[in-house]
């Protein structure tokens, strides 16, 4: 699903809204019309984990929530080759350290 699919559905059916479900979980930028790279995708997930921690979630709980996104994530091609390895990671600190290293691999887009 992408912006072009949305416009096609609107033109063909006259629908006002669509449900994207997993598409939005897989790529939060789905309707922005732009592709993000691995660093920006990793930064999003790392920031999500940090926000959960700031709200009082325990570190293992934040890692579990991030893994729920990783299960479906396609943005940035981040987990194309090794999704299973990420899902098997038991140490939340290692999971977030890996995300952080990828996030820092390129500058924040302007």
Q: Can you offer a commentary on this structure?
A:
The chain is mostly helical and 110 residues long. The protein contains six helices and no strands. The mean pLDDT is 89.
In terms of topology, how is this protein built?
Elements: H1 3-13, H2 22-26, H3 38-54, H4 59-70, H5 83-88, H6 92-103
Helix pairs in contact: 3-4, 3-6, 4-6
Task: List the main descriptive attributes of the protein structure presented here.
6 helices, 57% helix, single chain, 110 residues, 0% strand, elongated, mainly alpha
DSSP summary: helix tally = 6
Name the helix and strand elements from N-terminus to C-terminus, one letter apiece. HHHHHH
Radius of gyration using CA atoms only: 16 Å
Estimate what percentage of residues fall within beta strands.
Answer: under 5%
> Helix amount, in percent?
55-70%
Average the pLDDT over all residues and give the rounded result. Answer: 89
Could you say which overall geometry the principal axes of the C-alpha atoms support? elongated
Number of strands: 0
Low-confidence stretches: none
- End-to-end Cα distance, whole Å, is 26 Å
Which structural class do you get from the secondary structure elements?
Answer: mainly alpha
The major β-sheet equals:
none
